[in-house]
């Protein structure tokens, strides 16, 4: 008898559970928004969004003028937590998470911190000669050789192209003179308005973007670029204050490097750091490791600097270490690996091989 009572109780419990589930299904069908909100709250709980947002505000000194702005930024932050989680799945050999850009929408991030314009190449841009690649070192890093200045910060200005330009010229100047000098991005922001004569509106335009090859052309035409300390960075568009008597470095010539990654490596080793365009879609959430996403667009929207290469994170799909480029960025040392980004080398990931330039420097006659 006791056994039958137990079975009856079990059946009643089962019926209650099924009824409850059925009611829940009906509720979900009738009130999908409420369920969506519940699911979102559950996801926020799993992401621990409030805790991460508090830590984010404290770490990066974030303050918002109104409660409405605070709540809006918290909503954006939660969306970026989900993006970071997605990026971690698509790019498992890198670490993705909260960065100083986590309260910005993708559109705001692109507008304020990118700024690369994939324009046509100026007439003076020659193709770099093919170099031998047989005896290239396995690992190479211009930072170890004294040819790279400290990581800089472009701020909320789409001037990445100017930092890529000065970085390449700083390295070339070091190779030509043995002297490492920090060069002025602000001069390029204020003074460089080189345009493509065949394409209306295709001009370097300060915080609204530009192209490294155009900037090399400007330096070639103007006679050089000043030191950072003589023409300091403001992160805003301004009037040109170029003083030709204070030129610190100038361009002898510049070339476009082949898409072949061995040629890119050979040019890097021989000619110094290289100015490159890249698709920065995974960079907003990047914290460290080797970024090698399964899918990444080839549309170039950010100018950076290749300073070296090596081998690193284990690639589970290929069962071996993956080679990578070492990239100097211009978002300060608080981003990425002390301001640097490692990206997979070997198959034009995120378009990193699509627009690569090398520059040669001459020692200014004034010296």
Q: What distinguishing features does this structure have?
A:
367 residues; eleven-stranded mixed sheet; single chain; alpha+beta; Cathepsin B, Chain A; 2 domains
Helix and strand topology:
Blueprint: H1 2-30, H2 32-47, H3 49-60, H4 67-90, E1 94-96, H5 106-113, E2 126-127, E3 140-141, H6 160-177, H7 185-191, H8 212-222, E4 225-226, E5 247-256, H9 261-271, E6 274-278, E7 286-291, E8 302-315, E9 320-328, E10 340-344, E11 356-362
Helix pairs in contact: 1-2, 6-7, 6-8
Describe the structure.
- The chain is an alpha+beta fold and 367 residues long.
- It has two domains: 2-93, no CATH class; 109-362, Alpha-Beta Complex (Cathepsin B, Chain A), CATH 3.90.70.10.
- It is 37% helix and 18% strand.
- It contains nine helices and eleven strands.
- The chain has helices at 2-30, 32-47, 49-60, 67-90, 106-113, 160-177, 185-191, 212-222, 261-271, and strands spanning 94-96, 126-127, 140-141, 225-226, 247-256, 274-278, 286-291, 302-315, 320-328, 340-344, 356-362.
- Strands 1, 2, 3, 4, 5, 6, 7, 8, 9, 10 and 11 form an eleven-stranded mixed β-sheet that branches.
- Strand 8 (302-315) and strand 9 (320-328) form a beta hairpin.
- Helix 1 (2-30) packs across helix 2 (32-47), helix 6 crosses helix 7 (185-191) and helix 6 crosses helix 8.
- It is globular.
- The N and C termini lie far apart (107 Å).
- This is Cysteine proteinase.
- One of its GO terms (molecular function) is cysteine-type endopeptidase activity.
- Pfam families: Inhibitor_I29 (PF08246), Peptidase_C1 (PF00112).
- Residues 53-109 form the Cathepsin propeptide inhibitor domain.
- It comes from Glycine max.
